[in-house]
Amino acid sequence: MQAARVLGQREQxxxxxxxxxxxxxxxxxxxxxxxxxxxxxxxxxxxxxLALMVPFAQRIGPELLVRFGVAVVAALALMVASVAASRxxxxxxxxxx
Length: 97
What we know:
- This protein is 86% helix and 0% strand.
- By secondary structure, it is mainly alpha-helical.
- It has one domain.
C-alpha cells in the first residue's frame, strides 16, 4: 500500500524535492499520514471493545485482553514496517535526474 501510494504521487514528491523539501520531512509527513488514522481507529475500537467487555470481564478472562493487545501491537508493527520498507522508494522518486 505504501509503495503504491508513493508511486501514485511521484510527481508531487518530485515537485516537493525540487522546491527544497527535505527527505526527512517527507518521511515524517508519510508516517503521520498513516499513523494518525491508525491510532484513532485503535483508540476508538479499543474503547468500544473495552466498554462492551467490562460487564463480562469475569467470564471472559484475561486471554481476550491479551489477544486484543497482541493485535494492536501487530497492527502498529505492520504500519512501521510498511513505512520503513518504502523509504528507499521515496529516495528514488525524489531523485533529481
